[in-house]
Write a structure and sequence with these properties.
Mean pLDDT: 97
Radius of gyration: 20 Å
CATH topology of the largest domain: N-terminal domain of MutM-like DNA repair proteins
Shape: globular
Helix content: 10-25%
Largest sheet: 4 strands, antiparallel
CATH architecture of the largest domain: Alpha-Beta Barrel
Distance between the termini: 27 Å
Low-confidence stretches: none
Number of helices: 6
CATH class of the largest domain: Alpha Beta
Number of domains: 2
Strand content: 15-25%
CATH superfamily of the largest domain: MutM-like, N-terminal
Oligomer: single chain
Length: 289
């Protein structure tokens, strides 16, 4: 699933490409009677409402909240796109040779003659329409925790948030969107590797020193993900349909059986399952629970 760096990479690309353009039409193959009442474009009745509201609206800007893309329109509405497990948004003349770019489920036609397309092989993505002035009070955005790359996300804020789940494993707490926004499986594993913390360690048993190290590791790992254009270990592609490069810098995630790359560490990366998610860590410098 695209996480904060992948979503931010997408948002930055869209801001450079579609701002001030007008949506002239929209098409989807998502809509199905099985989704009546879902309040997403998968409901044919909702899609008709969605289409009526967005056509002829100008795109003011594109922002992000956690893993959600927010396309803010000039008419007071915001298109929310959550790419879920296999989605990515592309624009214009994207790379059509990549097989991961062929599953187009939603097309926005734009006033410059180009399109913005949502590719989603497994059809899990969520697209809905919110009133901009109240969108942060909706069920889609209100439950989300603080943004880890914001200036006001200080160590005391981080500490307070994870203290809400004292008896849970730290890997699960990091991926809980109500605790911290935007972190998923990849960046949790990578941050814990850098902080030298076992993913199964219970929050209440983590020392203050280790928590501070984890706080810094989260920020540095997410920033590195953004700088490298996101992670394309799986389906994710940027708006040009190109792969990101963070997967080439993995230290733990899906590195099972390889020697640990931490300096002077003699360990190997092993894989376990935590909360139903494949989890990767070093059996030496992250060994203690």
């Amino acid at each position: 699933m695209p996480e904060l760096p992948e979503v931010q990479t997408t948002v930055s690309g869209l801001n450079n490409s579609i701002r001030n353009l007008t949506i002239t039409d929209v098409w989807t193959e998502y809509n199905s009677p099985y989704f009546y009442g879902s309040e997403t474009i998968k409901d044919p009745k909702y899609f008709a409402y969605f289409k009526k509201k967005i056509i002829n609206a100008k795109i003011s800007n594109v922002t992000r909240r956690a893993k959600n893309i927010l396309i803010n329109l000039s008419n007071g509405y915001t298109i929310l796109i959550h790419m879920k497990m296999t989605g990515h948004v592309m624009y214009g003349d994207y790379n059509k040779k990549d097989p991961f770019n062929r599953h187009i489920r939603l097309i926005f036609y734009l006033s410059n003659g180009k399109t913005m397309d949502l590719c989603d092989s497994r059809k899990f993505a969520k697209v809905t329409l919110l009133e901009t002035k109240t969108m942060f009070d909706t069920k889609h955005l209100k439950p989300i925790g603080p943004e880890p790359l914001n200036d006001d996300f200080t160590f005391p804020v981080f500490n307070r948030q994870i203290q809400k789940e004292l008896n849970k494993k730290i890997k699960l707490v990091l991926m809980d969107q109500s605790v911290i926004a935007g972190i998923g499986n990849i960046y949790a594993d990578e941050s814990l590797w850098r902080a030298e913390i076992n993913p199964e360690k219970i929050v209440k048993n983590i020392s203050e020193k280790d928590k501070k190290r984890l706080f810094l590791a989260i920020k540095s790992t997410l920033k590195k993900g953004i700088n490298l254009g996101g992670d394309s270990m799986s389906d994710y592609r940027n708006i040009d349909g190109e792969r990101g490069n963070f997967q080439e810098q993995h230290m733990a995630y899906r590195k099972t059986g390889t020697n640990c790359l931490k300096r002077n560490c003699k360990g190997k990366i092993i894989r376990i399952v935590v909360g139903g998610r494949g989890t990767h860590y070093c059996n030496v410098h992250q060994a203690k629970i």
